[in-house]
Amino acid sequence: MATTIREIAKELGVNISTVSRSLNNSPSVSAQTRDRVLEAARRLGYRRNARATALRTGKSGIIGVVVGDIVNPFFAQLADSIEKKAQDLDLRLMIGNGGEDPHQQEQVVGTMMEHQIDGLLLTPAGTPTNTLRNYVKEIPTVAIDRSLAGANVDTVLSEDSPAVDELMKHVTRQGYRSAVVISGPATTSTGLNRERLLSQSLRDIGVKTRTYRTTYHEESGAEAIAQALRENTPDIVLCASAVITLGVIAGLHRHGLRVGEDVAIATFDKVPWLVTTMPSIAVIDTKIDEMADIAMRILRQRIGGDLGKPLMKTVTSQLLLPAEPGAPHGTP
Asked: Within a domain: residue 309?
């Protein structure tokens, strides 16, 4: 038979209301009491009855998370980070794949709303549909990593300018004179902003720059670098995301070019495989964990009834320079 909150209360010698408020993370309960209740709940095998809770409180305790494309290692890492933050806040997740398609995102969010999610964390894919814009008016929503065009919602983004400034100093020190920028689609805020920031920064320091706009897929990165190499081989390739970089690495290898020796690479997104297997690449770490933490806390406040004006929060990215042989990635 399932453990009840009455049994937890009896075990600890406290009121049932104290157990209930502790399990619902009420601010009226001390941290010490909450920890005792949560420990006892785990020990006794308590499981929350989601349907009963939803009927009683009008809230499901479920957060919807829709990422750009789950096959992109950045978004897989983002979803993992959000899940860990949700566990800390005693929330459960329903994760959906947007597939970098606004219509698919609309369908996924619609399905989540049918399951009565309390709030939504969303990485917008392209220009949102009118239906999606209407959905986010109905439930607390935080856009993360990308802004949601035409919608008045809380937003958490990376601030990349300081890291790019440091990257330009590195480019100058290395004496690179030609560069290729491979950016994401202009329909996403990160794709457009990173393209402009990288291209203009390179030109400002006198580096001859060619820009190729592509999609956030591995094969797109390979096609873009193949197109660039038909003209000439650049000193450095700067990529707007790790998944593009994966394709660029494969494309360079097909042309017999060595990463870090024949062609340097710099990329956004610190994903595990990149920093462990390709230490010769400069990485702009967009601080996924920090963005997830801020977004989850804002969403929790909105679900709790905070009706303040939409917030715009930024997390400052950090440049990790290529490692010396045998050393980890490091800062400038």
From this structure: yes
